[in-house]
Amino acid sequence: MKNIVTLIIAIILLTGCKQSYIGDFEKNLDSIYINLIDTHESGMSIYYTFELKNESERTLEAVELLMGFETLQEYKSSGHPNNIMFNAEPDEEPFGIEPNESIYYRVEFPIGLVKEELLHLEQMEIFMKGYFEEVNAMNSFSKSGNIEYFEKSIQ
User: What's the whole-model pTM score?
Assistant: First the structure.
């Protein structure tokens, strides 16, 4: 009987901790913002600058950011990918993005290499992945959506 009571208490404690961790995880993920800071055209490319702002309670590690555009429906059905994505490069390689810190990322969109008529250029998509605190599978996160989903609304 004593073992059963101990087992029940252990399950309750573990379940409670897991729920708390999940809530904390979601709260921290929702506190990472990406804002489009600048767009300019030069030569055969469009350059985008993004600010990633960590307003979570956790340090972000090994953050990767991709930016792209959705392919038009008529081209998806003919075998084109759903999105054309480009890797965003950080201005500096961070060892970690601490709470309340920002880092800037830049993307070059090569106009000449991509057929613009294939894409929804007004519908920018972002994909972000990384880790909270340390790089391991338990701390990994990812988030994707249009740029409005990532931006912090200014009230």
Answer: 0.75
Domain holding 88, by residue range, is 31-150
Structure tokens at 112: 């000449």
Structural domain tally of the chain? 1
pLDDT digits 0-9 by tens, 123-134 = 888 999 999 998
CA distance 65 to 85: 10
Residue 65, in any domain of the structure: yes
| Residue ranges in 30-155 assigned as alpha helix (H) | 73-76, 147-150
- The per-residue b/e assignment along 77-116, b for 16 or more CB within 10 angstroms, e otherwise, is eeeeeebbbbebebeeebebbeeeeebebebebeeeeeee
77-122 per-position pLDDT tens digit:
666 567 778 899 998 877 789 999 999 999 998 877 666 667 767 7
CATH of the domain at 66: 2.60.40.1230
